[in-house]
Structure formats: structure tokens, C-alpha cells
Amino acid sequence: MAKHIRIFDTTLRDGEQAPGCSMNLDEKVRLARQLEALKVDIIEAGFAIASPGDAAAISAVSEALKSCTVASLSRSLEKDIDASWNALRKAVRPRIHTFIATSPIHMQYKLKMQPEDVLRQAAAMVAYARNLCPEIEFSAEDASRSSPEFLYRIFEAVIDAGATIINVPDTVGYTTPDEFEQLIRGIRENVPNIDKAVISVHCHNDLGLAVANSLAAVQAGAEQVECTVNGIGERAGNAALEELIMTLHTRRDLYDADFGIDTTQIAKTSRLISSITGVMVQPNKAIVGANAFAHESGIHQHGMLANSQTYEIMTPASIGLNRNFMVLGKHSGRHAFVERLKELGYTADKQTLDEVFAQFKELSDRKKTVTDRDLEALMDSRSTLIEPTYLLKQFVINSGSNMTATAAVKLTRDKKDIEDVSTGDGPVDAAFNAIERITGISFTLEEYVIHAVTAGKDAQGEVSVRVSHNGRTYKGRGVSTDVIGASIKAYLFAVNSMLYEESYEQ
Ligand code: KIV
Ligand code: ZN
Predict the structure, then answer these.
(1) Which of 141, 142, 158 to mutate to test the pocket of ligand 1 (most atoms within 8 A of CB)?
(2) What tens digit of pLDDT does each residue of 428-484 get?
(3) For the CA of 47, the nearest ligand
(4) CATH number of this structure's domain 391-505
(5) CATH 3.30.160.270 residue ranges for the chain
(6) Can you give the pTM of this predicted structure?
């Protein structure tokens, strides 16, 4: 019988640690819901002790999810474990994930502890956590640079203390597939009570081997794999969920492993993460890159026409591309629109539906056909903030090759219109300056990214911005067939995020 591999998604914890990938509470809940639709088994929602915002997000994710296990990370310290447990209380299936470093270099320089004390501390904290929470995972940080004999002993001790998942992280992305496979086999063969626990692996991608190492571990008997969508994470990132899953799917003949993931949700989840973080995947990224299914050369195209399997080892439809691509137009009614959103997995309150329907109508006036991708972009670009402080009412731009760009922008705040005019180095700069004059908030623009949602000259442009203010970073996104409009929306999104966070902290 095929072995079952559990997918532990840490996009909201390890993934969020990647530069530029931080998310606010609403974004985390939105992503967690999509990860549940993708059918991951476990969602690591954060590191509760790290900040009140992290704890609040874990709590909100715990409340929002219906079936997934929700995990919170904790060092092997009582205060961390208490913080995790408090944040997880509302989860249907809570899991405390506790870790301590086990490599000589980490024990000596970071923990300044003797190995025997590390072992005692790990077992004591697993027992402490087990008294609170029904499911405990223990990680031996930097396991791949630890002594295997020490790992056998510490894993035996934490399993005795109540851990039912033992995780073997390649924290610094140092190991290779052969070596890691041996390590996992060694653990299976030398930890006497290993039958009472699931072996998990957690690989980083510093040498580009995270997915290969995770797959080698699966062949050696690992039954849980930790990963992130788009491979986001510390430094070079974590093992990419989509690559792992599509390898297990495409090479079932080799791995004989099954999993619960709904592969047709992969493309949508990948896009949602890019839209939320503003970090796009490179075009040649395996599985989810824009070119992953593009065939450019004539020989390949000829082969594909004769039989798609000549050059295609998996179909775009299997990751949810080209699926049931429904086209709506300006004559489509509200009912068809709402139904399509539901089919695409969006639930929204009446006010949101009214607003997005109005946007859809406006879009269908400008664009011949509105596709699923357009609808997803409209929904994903929305701020889920309860009440945005500023709304865009209208803008006028004057710009050309031999003139100074001018922007007149009108916003509403508390139902009152406020407008101002500014010049700038191009239309986007002028519009951002006008917003600054209205809001009194001066941002430094750290990053500005624009891309087309679909093909065609009438495509919507999706803009992501990253701005900073008083040492803090905020993100914004906006879509429109007018790229200046999309830019203004993205900038306003960042303004509203900042004001929302400030009000949240008061
Ligand atoms: O990379 C790592 O070692 C981790 C652990 C805390 C699981 O993220
Ligand atoms: Zn990690």
C-alpha cells in the first residue's frame, strides 16, 4: 500500500521570515483559508512568543480553520510554550511545535549549554507542553550538522516525554540527498521507540537541494514534510510545496506515496502569496513560474501538437491552470458573477460583493472579456481591512515627453472629498506626491513591481509597492486596466495598512 505523506506548511511562519514577505493578520487568515482549500495537513501559523502580532495571527487562524491542524512554534522554554498554547486554544486540532538546537556549534555558541543539559531541557519541555496540548512536535534544530548518536538519544527521550512527531531540520541547507537519506534511515533504525512517532523533515534551500533532500528523506521513511508555497523562507528559502507535491504526483512510480493535497489549488495559492507579499516568482520557477508550461521552440511545439506527452510530464490543468476558464462580459448579471466567485472559492459579505461587482462592471466596459484570473486579481488585491481610511474617488494625470508630469488626485475620508495636485518625476511619482500632500504621510518607496494579470493590450495591470515610514515597512497592491490607477490603489493600500496597524496598536 502507498505510504501517506503529511504536508506541514510553514509559509506563515518560516516563509514569513523571508525579507519582504511579512503579512498582516488579515493576510495571514486569508492565506490560511487558501492553504486549507489546498488541503495541507498542518499549518504552522507563527511563533507566538515572537510578538503580540504573531500570537494574534495564530489565534485568528486557529479560529478561522475548520479541519487543519494549526501549529505554533516555541523554543524549549515554558514561557514560549505557554504563549503558543494561549494562541492555539481555539484550534480544532492544536499542535505545539517546540525546538532546541542539537549541533555542537549551536549548543556551544548559541545556547551555551552542555549536550546533556540540552537533552534534559528538551524532554522536560516536551513533557510540559504535553500537559497542555494533545499533540507535540519536537525539532532538533541544525540536525543535519548534529551527531547522529546524540540525535538518537534526544529523539528517544522526547518521544518518551510525549512527542509524536520528531522533526529533522536541515536548518542551514547543508546536507545532500545521499547523506540525508542515511541520517533518516539511521534514526529509523536506532531510536528504539521510533514506532510511536512520525519522522518529519524540514529542509532549507541554501544549496538548492531542499526538495531533493526532502524527497530522499521520504524514500528513507519520513512521513511528514515541511515546506512553503513558492519556496519562500529564510535566506534561500524552504522546500517548495509545489515542487515536492508535483514530484510525488508525477513520479508515483518511484515514490509510491500519496498525499491529501488538491493539486488543482496550487497555481491559485502561489498567485495569492505573490499578490499578498508582492514577491513574484521567477518566470522559469518549476511548476508555478510563468514559463513552466510554455513551449517556445518549434520542435517542441510540433511534438506537443502531435502528442502533448512528448514534452509535457504533467498537465497545466493538474495545478489548476486553464481550469474551466469561464469568461464573463458586460452583459453578465450579478447572479452569474457571484456564482463564479463561489466556484473560485471566494466567500464574501454583501458589501464586498457589491463593491467587487461594481469593479467588475467597470472592468467589463474596458475589457472585452473578464476571465477567472481577472476576478481573482480583483478579489486578491482587495484590502481586507475592516474600514480603509482613504478611498480613491478620481484622478487626472497630465504627462508627456517634454513636460513635467502633474497629478490631481481626489480621495474620500469619512465621506468627505479631499483633493490636491502635485508634480513629479513621471505620472506615478506625481500621483504618489499628491497622495502624500493629502494624507500628510510621507513614505520612502522601497519597491515598485508591475505585471499584467492576463495577456492582451487591454489586460489589467497589477502593481505591488513596498514602502517604509519611521523604520517600518508596509505593502500595498492594486489592479486596474490603467496602470496609474493600479499604482495609486497600491499606494493607498499601503497608507491604509499603516493607519490600520497604528490604530490596532493603540
Ligand atoms: O530551520 C529550522 O531549523 C527551523 C526549525 C525551528 C524547525 O525552522
Ligand atoms: Zn526553518
Answers:
(1) 141
(2) 999 999 999 999 999 999 999 998 888 788 888 999 999 999 988 888 989 999 999
(3) 1
(4) 3.30.160.270
(5) 391-505
(6) 0.86
